[in-house]
Amino acid sequence: MIRDGPALAGGMLASWQPPRAGRTGVTSISLRAETLEAVRARAGKQGVSSYIEEAVQRQLQREAVDEYIAAAEAGHGPVDPAEVAARTDRIRAHHTARRGGEAPTGDRPPRTR
Predict the structure, then answer these.
(1) What CA–CA distances, in Å, run from 72 to 9, 13, 49, 54, 83?
(2) Tens digit of pLDDT for each residue in 40-99?
(3) Helices 33-43 and 48-76, packing angle to 10 deg
């Protein structure tokens, strides 16, 4: 059963922090040339460092959610796929209604000004 609410399994999701301005550290990473070329093309004015920061933050969030789900399933049993599908449909319907009938098209919601 999927439960609504802010309960966190051992604070796993609490440790994830959204990207924000502030103190940074410097490191060196190695990427395949094709990957770096694609990152530069997509990063644009945002810059490679900011692009990679956001990508890593999304990955950390995904991993925290995966850990939360694993802990919840360990304590409560597996999630019912039919319930997940029903909630997914409900979320998509909500976003479709907010977009004036347009179906969601990607990971990021459209920007509003």
Answers:
(1) 7, 12, 34, 27, 15
(2) 999 999 999 999 999 999 999 999 999 999 999 999 999 899 999 999 999 999 999 988
(3) 100
Angle at 39 (CA atoms; ends 35, 44), nearest 5 degrees = 160
Torsions phi, psi for 52 (to 5 deg): -65, -40
Would the pLDDT of 7 be above 80?
no
3-class SS at 89?
helix
Which tokens hold the place of 69? Answer: 């789900």
Handedness of CA 67, 56, 5, 98 (dihedral sign): negative
Q: Is the model's pTM score more than 0.70?
A: no
Identity of the amino acid at 62:
R
